[in-house]
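re: that chain from earlier
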Amino acid sequence: MADAARVMRIPGTQNYKHDKPTDVTLVSQGDETYTLQQFVDAGVEEIGRVADATPTPVNLKGGKVLTRDASLKIGSQMLALLDTTGNHDMEYGSGSEADFAVICALLRSSHSPADVAATFVASKRGEDARGRKPGHYDDYIERTMESAQLAVGAERPDVDDMKNILGKRRVEVSDENRIALLAELGHLLADVQITEARRYLGDDPTFVLYTDGGVVRVGGWANVVNQTRFRGPFEGVTGEVIPPYDKAAWAQVRALILKASVDIEVHDEATEQGQVRVWVEEYLEVHPATSERAEFNEQWRDSIRMDNPFQMNGDTCITLNGTKSFIKNVIGERIDRKDLARLLRAEGWESDKVNIMDDDRRTSKRVFRKKQGAS
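^ sequence. v structure.
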């Protein structure tokens, strides 16, 4: 059972977590009983909790509603989530998961639990949750706040980790040793072959692993520390399931990631323009631009039709649809088409139009083109 509240999901009743109520049914029943020690011996652990973490009691009436300005210190996506309802265009599995995500974002921004609770309750999402949780709304807020405090507390690295990720105590690794570290890391992570690990430097360094199954965008250091959050992108790309690790074993995994990573200077990655630059570079790395080679090259024309990168007269071309889709589905970020077009122009991409013959009919497609040799 994932959480204690689910004991109230009695067979024969309905679960109103989603828009369409779901029947609660009994799938199986057994007479076996197990001791806690048997779970421990089997290697089952409670992931994401700090052993000595005691959540701060939340007084829903004691906090202040935070103003919607820079002092809120959450990204535009989470700010939008705070002002929307439900599961936000199916991006989250349920409205409750979306509630949890925005509360965690507020807590990560160093606001007090009481202020976070008050801000959430006063928001459009908080009002929506009141309608979704009739009769036990206060209890729902308290439980969600407690879970979020524990999750955010588990993400915070210790002092030595912080010294390492901020580059204050960086140990240089030779290429030969790096290969050995990557092999050891791959062995621990379900025997996946890892060819390269990168650490993109910035205020919040981000990590990327290149594996035989594809590119794993791990994200920030918090996603390395918390093995539950690490599993999602890793298992989704590689198709391999990572076994659960105890705290000491996972510390070895994250130490290997840190030591094996090559530092990549991205300078202004924290800015919108810098982020788009890195995303487009990775897009072209995963989907190299197809050369036209000849006027009627079918592979080249297919690339244009399918919104994949391609070359034209030696210049690299991309489409808004293809780039936006990669950013959303592979990188996991959302960006408005107009903002993407604006930032691409700032990066030296020029708006252009390409004509192709399709079934004896000339069609045109709007593209963004970067001249050969342009930085």
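The chain has three domains: 43-155, 161-264, 272-370.
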